[in-house]
Amino acid sequence: MEHNILVVGGNGLVGKTIIRILKSRNPQVNIFIGGRKEGTGNYLKIDVTDPGTFQIILEKKMDMVILSVNDKEDNILRFAIKNKIDYLDITKPTPDLVKAYAIAKKGDVQSRIVFSSGWMGGIVNGLVKTLSGNTNDIQEVKLFVYYSVKDLAGESSAHFMAENVAKPFIRYENNRQVSIKHFLDSEDFDFSFGIGKRKAYNFDVPDLYILNQIEKIPDVSVKMTYNSKFITWLLGAFQKVRIFNILSLKERKMIFGSSGNGDQSVFEIIIRTKSGNEKLSLQSTKGQAELTALSAVLHTEELLKNFHENNTYFSHQLHQPSLLLEKLKAYESINIKISR
């Protein structure tokens, strides 16, 4: 059976990578690229700020929309719900995700609406479940992120950091919301894959909300470090003396907007249960864009190939955790280690 899939933001770094991986694994799928400029063939003019451009989605009979560009007003989400089109969103920072999830839960959903905005395309929460099949047994989850400024990076993550670095966000301690800020409260962590010991600092990703509010894990925290120890220390110092508060948005974008030619991306999950700690370490040798795009493709394939009722989902809820782990392990640029 043929499927028509629209990638809105398909001209961006992650969008292009999604299309490449999806085409290579599913040549029978018809893929359309949505962007703000006029195009020909499979290139469609779709401006997320202008719902008047969405009519072509119906004309081309799209079965599914993958959103890889920021849609602040959730126009594509509302359109997908209204027109019973499957929807996968990989773009939202935590505040926007909470708002969009509320819209979907209140709507009359007659398609599959999937939010996949957790770290690296929403796979962390599924991998947590590979360490413990019953999340009721998990008392704490810690996520440690290694981010390299040498990695290829799209604009959205840099813009999010620039807009939110001076704002407090929430982590969870014993189901209590604790207000914190980026790049404070350092914790020493020994990263795998040859990275070694680093200081890691507060970092906001939607997994904080998802693991506590959806999976009911009482203690959840996320900390990150840069490939450069000096940059990591400098950002912490900037936050401590409130330099970010006085910088303009343009200046903050300059700080976070660097993108290299490619580097590894690493994250590590530690869970604590009554019986002890377990750790999963994941390395993407081709970087974060490749891993995020692969995750989006895995979620898409799950929707295409297996039955899931019309409903609102977080992406990890689509998968059997053990199968998700095996699919990630099978990808050539992914390395995974588990220690118990």
Notes on the structure:
The chain is α/β, with parallel strands linked by helices. It folds into two domains: 4-120 and 289-331, Rossmann fold (3-Layer(aba) Sandwich), CATH 3.40.50.720; 122-287, 2-Layer Sandwich (Dihydrodipicolinate Reductase, domain 2), CATH 3.30.360. It has helices at 13-25, 55-59, 75-82, 94-106, 119-122, 124-131, 155-164, 207-214, 229-240, 243-246, 249-256, 288-305, 321-330, and strands at residues 4-8, 30-35, 43-45, 64-67, 86-89, 112-115, 138-147, 169-173, 176-180, 187-191, 196-202, 219-226, 265-273, 276-284, 311-314, 334-339. Helix 1 (13-25) links the parallel strand 1 (4-8) and strand 2 (30-35). The mean pLDDT is 93.
Q: Could you list some keywords that capture this structure?
A:
340 residues; alpha/beta; Rossmann fold; Dihydrodipicolinate Reductase, domain 2; 2 domains; 7-stranded parallel beta sheet; 7-stranded mixed beta sheet; 13 helices; 16 strands; 36% helix; 28% strand
Brief account:
The chain is α/β, with parallel strands linked by helices. Helix content is 36%, strand content 28%. The chain is built from 13 helices and 16 strands.
* Helix proportion range: 25-40%
Number of contiguous helices? 13
Average pLDDT score: 93
- Please indicate the percent range of residues in DSSP E strands (runs of 2 or more): 25-35%
State the order of secondary-structure elements, H for helix, E for strand.
EHEEHEHEHEHHEHEEEEHEHHHEEHEHE
Tell me what the CATH architecture of the largest domain is.
2-Layer Sandwich
Spatial gap, N to C terminus: 43 Å
- The overall number of domains is 2
